[in-house]
Amino acid sequence: MLDKYLLFTPGPVNVAASLRHAICKADICHREPDFDGLLARIEQKLLTLFEIKKRNRYRAVVITGSGTAANEAILSSVVGDGAILILSNGEFGERLHKTSIIHNKHTHLIQQPWGTPFDPDQIAAYLATHRIDVVAMVHHETCSGMLNPLAAIGALTKAHGAIFVVDGVSSVGAEVVDMEGCNIAFCSSSSSKAIGSYPGLSFVIGRKKQFKKLKLHAAKTTYLNLATFYGFLKQHSQTPNTPAVPLFLALEQALTNILSDGVTNRFARIRARADQLRLGMRKLNLEFVLDEADMCAILTTVKVPPSILVRDLRDRLREKSIIIYEGKGCFAGKVFQVGNIGELSDRDIQFFLSTLRDVLLELQAEAADVVAPIRPKAINPTIPALTEPMLATLSS
Ligand SMILES: *Cc1c(COP(=O)(O)O)cnc(C)c1O
C-alpha cells in the first residue's frame, strides 16, 4: 500500500497541496467584504477558464452542492411554462431527464443507447415539428466517456430560436466549452472533477441577458433558484444562503493553479496523460468502448477482459492503493473506467499501468486454474482414473 489512494476516477480527485493549505486559510463571514471579494475573484477566474471574449456579457453563480445541484438549478429555473428537449445518450442524460420531469410539465426526450452518438438530422427534424424553448445536453457523458457535439447542437438550437443549456460537469477544466461560439445560454460544472478541487461546490455560467430573463418565471424551488442566485450576485457578490466558505477558498486556489499553467497548456497536459494511459492499456491488449476520437480527455472506458470479474479487478487494485470506477447501468460488469484528472504524476501513471498488468495477469492465472479441465491421470493403477461422469459430479 502507498500512504494514499491514487484516484483514477472521474472525480473525486487527488487535490494539490496548495488546496489543502487554502481550504483552512481563514475564517471569514459570507456577509463581509472578504467573501464578496473571494466570490468576485472566483467569477473572474471562471470567465477566464471559459475563455469568454465579451466578458461583460456573462456571469457565473457558485452553488454549495455537487454538480447535480447546478443541473437542477438550471432545469428548474430556465424553462418556466415552456417546453424543454433533453438529449440523452447515457446515465447523466437520463438524470437530466429525471430532474426535468420533476420541474417541467413539458419535458421532451430524444434518447440514444449509452455510448451512441446523436443524429443531428433527427434532432433538427424534431425541432422543426415541435415547439421547443430549451434544449439540454450533457457535454461529456461520463458513463461512456463520449464527448457530445456542442457546436452542431448549438447551431441547431440557434436556428430554431431555442436556448441551449449544457451539463459540463465532467468536461469543464479539460475540454474547450465555447459558450459564445456554440450559442450556450447556461453551462453547469462542479469543483471536484477536471477543475481538481474538493467536492461540494458547483456553478452555472450564463449569458447575462438570459440570467435577467429568469425572474419572469415563477419560482419552482427556493434553494436552487438561479434568479435568486443572480440577484445576490449582482447586488452584493454574495450567495443567497450560507455558502461552504472553505470550499470557495479551495476552488479559488484550484482556478489559480489552472490559470497559472495556462488554460491551453492545462488541457494539453490532461490529454497527454490520457494518451499515455490509453497507449499503455492498449499494450495490455485491453479494448475500449469508444473510438479514441469520440472520447473526452478525462477518462477511458475499458472493456473487462473475458474471465475477469470487474469487482475483483477493483478490489485488487484498491489493495495496491489504486481506485477505479465500475461501469453502471447497462455497462455494469462489462466495463471499468480509468480517469486521469487531479494530481497524478507521470510516475503515478506508470505505477498504475504496471500494477494493472500484474493484477490482470494474477486474475487471469487464477481464472485459468478454476476453469482448466482436471486431467485425469492414473498414477497409481489401483486408483481408477476419473471418468467423465465423476468429473461432472466434482464440478457440480
Ligand atoms: C459527476 C457528474 C454530474 C454530477 O454528479 P454529482 O454526483 O452531483 O457530483 C453531472 N453530470 C455529469 C456529466 C457528471 O459526470
Automatic annotation (TrEMBL):
PANTHER family given in the database record: 2-AMINOETHYLPHOSPHONATE--PYRUVATE TRANSAMINASE
Needed cofactors: pyridoxal 5'-phosphate
Species the sequence originates in: Sulfitobacter sediminilitoris
Record: residues binding substrate: Q337
Domain of life: Bacteria
Protein name per its UniProtKB record: Aminotransferase class V-fold PLP-dependent enzyme
Pfam families for the chain: Aminotran_5
Record domain Aminotransferase class V: where: 60-331
Location of N6-(pyridoxal phosphate)lysine modifications: K193
Molecular function terms from GO: transaminase activity
Keyword terms of this UniProt record: Aminotransferase, Pyridoxal phosphate, Transferase
